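Give me structure tokens for this 314-residue protein.
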Amino acid sequence: MILQTLVALGPVIGLIALGYGIRARSFLSPSFWPPAERLCYFILLPALFINGTATADLAGLPIGLMAPILAGPVIVTALGLVIAQRWLDLDGPAFTSVIQGSIRFNNYLGLSIALALFGSDGVALAAIANTVLVPLVNVLCTLAFARYGSERLTIGGTVRSIITNPLILGCVMGILLNVTGVGLPPGIAEFVRTLGTASLPLGLLCVGAALELRSMGRNLGAVLMATAVKFAVLPGLGIAGCLLFGLTGEPAATVILFLSLPTASSGGKGEGAGRRFAPHGVHHHAADRSGSAVPAHGVPRDRGPHGLRLRGQR
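Here you go.
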């Protein structure tokens, strides 16, 4: 399993590195990346979810077990950070960045690894993870920003962003097509599948183009704290949940995978590549103001929190 995972990571790392190199060498115009990631976010990735969930054997997936094991660690982690906040030497905006860096996840990495490890079942399992985690993280970030951030957010705006989220809509549409027995008609099925196939290579290139490694030296204490929570506490709680509820096999591996994913770069100087790759629909500029470099989730300035600074774009 370890060797299989390492093999699966090879193309993912290669595409991210290639995107970073293309961006660093200005091989493509900076204006290329915003429409490319917009295409991925609004069309290609939802198509991948529609095809994956519409054609999967959902009846054989332990959705009822996966949901609480995915949600529980995220809720416990967020509550634990809130309790610990009084002892942390961080102002409010910087603390919201720590929360982001601790509970948000890089969707494209998760999808790519799940697909490489588990094939078409991996897409369906990843869709389940998204259906659970995207709304939950949205709500938790909204609450954190309302309490600790310099901007006030509305519950109505958050709910609206969730129900109009292209990834959630793709998951719901595919599930409905599956459970109703309608499925994807011939011709349309191949069209949707082809669109979805294009999402991961282009998306990972955009993720690489969004990286700004130099920003990681800013506010190093907050970065290390979020990193420790993200890669130790959150997956540790997920493993405990799998053992407690008896979840095994590919569903358990998917749960642990999505709870172990790094956060994606976002925000900062620009609004470019990589910013929509975990769209949780929360508006936030606190990380920029606090100078925190805690990696947040790669979503646009009008859709998500900011932490790790990007190379300037549009």
